[in-house]
Write a structure and sequence with these properties.
This protein is an all-alpha fold. It is built from one helix and no strands.
Length: 43
Amino acid sequence: MADGYLENKQGDYEKRKEAWLRRKKHLPKVRKTNIMRPDDEAL
């Protein structure tokens, strides 16, 4: 396209992606907790 529409959209995408990656690095990691299940007394 003559007006650079796709180039502008690509630039906007790259900026959003970079910001997202920066935020992602600073998020606390989700840790799985091991749930202690009681012994099955019904069996």
